[in-house]
Design goal:
about 350 residues, alpha/beta, Rossmann fold, 2 domains, three-stranded parallel beta sheet, 9 strands, about 15% strand, globular, disordered C terminus
Length: about 350
């Protein structure tokens, strides 16, 4: 828990969690339901992944599996790696992050600034054609080479989902007095959606759990396609994914993520990351079917500064998604992002 004025937080890691939950009144004007956003980008490392990164390391430390001087190795496209890098730096552990070409230059710089060693996988796995599998294969090689190293394995570690069970969903439920009718969650490792769904189930909260996945992801589909936005979707169905806990899945394109990000900032002054834009667009897609008076929550995983060269750049959007002119619904929202870059 963050400290009060009389009791300041003990260290940077002690302020992970307890992020604000705010009401959004401008994003979908005229809607008959209540819309809230959980601002996970206000975690100290900049994303929701600070929660499982810290939880996994602390549990392993308590079990005597790791300690100062340990070598931690993980596969990540960005946010989990950054969360682990920050925590490892504080605890005096060596961290090796296995990345691929989708990892943005901003995230690579953040990893290195936090002291991480970046191990780059340039080619996808030949059997599956997926970079995720190639990264995991590389982690296993490094584990064999470095004696006593520890793999958090965010894709199947129960402390990933456990972190969201114990903190994220508990915070949301407490803030809303136990009423969450719809929860919209971006999916990748599926740790967030599983932890939140299990909390709702175990505490008798009647919540419709809506997964937001990328078009081309293999979590809820067998149709593979190129994806540009990191942190949304995966090249396999992660072991943490429990389909029985999920009520609905909405697939989102890269352009949907761009549109959602830009509408969040123009309508609510929220500068959020790519997957957050995807979640926002998912809510907009189903807004007409949401019951009047429903309490809806969307989790915004990371911050937008890491995407200034991608989703907030007109040049990048033109190159990867096409013309940007149709991104704006009306003249009031038409903003010259290129001039701000």
């Amino acid at each position: 828990m963050p400290g009060s004025l009389d009791s300041p937080p003990a260290n940077i890691l002690s302020v992970v969690g307890n992020t604000p939950l705010i009401r959004l009144s401008r994003f979908l004007p005229g809607s008959s339901f209540e819309l809230y956003a959980k601002l996970e980008f206000l975690n100290p490392g900049g994303s929701i992944k600070d929660r499982p990164a810290l939880e996994i390391l602390q549990r392993a430390m308590q079990a005597g599996e790791i300690g100062p001087g340990s070598v931690i190795i993980e596969s990540s496209s960005g946010n989990m790696g950054i969360g682990l890098a920050q925590a490892c730096l504080y605890y005096g552990m060596r961290f090796i992050c296995v990345v691929d070409p989708k990892t943005t230059p901003a995230n690579l710089q953040l990893l290195r600034t936090y002291g991480a060693e970046v191990d780059y996988v340039a080619e996808p796995d030949p059997a599956t054609g997926e970079f995720l599998q190639a990264r995991i294969n590389r982690v296993k090689v490094l584990m064999g080479e470095i004696e006593g190293s520890f793999w958090p394995n965010q894709y199947m570690n129960s402390n990933n989902s456990g972190a969201h069970y114990r903190t994220t969903m508990h915070e949301i439920a407490t803030a809303l007095n136990g009423r969450i009718d719809f929860l919209f969650v971006a999916t990748s490792t599926c740790g967030t959606i599983r932890g939140c769904a299990e909390y709702a189930r175990d505490n008798g909260i009647s919540t419709r759990i809506v997964a937001v996945d990328a078009v081309g992801s293999l979590i809820f589909s067998s149709v593979k396609a190129k994806r540009m936005i990191p942190g949304l979707g995966a090249g396999m169905r992660p072991p943490l994914c429990d389909l029985s806990l999920i009520d609905e899945c909405i697939h989102i394109t890269d352009l949907d993520c761009v549109t959602g990000c830009r509408r969040l900032v123009t309508r609510e002054a929220i500068l959020a990351g790519g997957s957050s834009g995807g979640v926002a667009t998912a809510v907009e897609k189903v807004k007409d079917s949401l019951p009047a008076g429903a309490v809806c929550v969307m989790i915004l995983p990371d911050r937008g500064e890491r995407y200034l060269d991608t989703v907030y750049s007109d040049d990048w959007v033109r190159e990867h998604c096409g013309d940007v002119q149709h991104l704006w619904q009306d003249a009031e929202e038409k903003v010259s992002w290129a001039a701000k870059a």
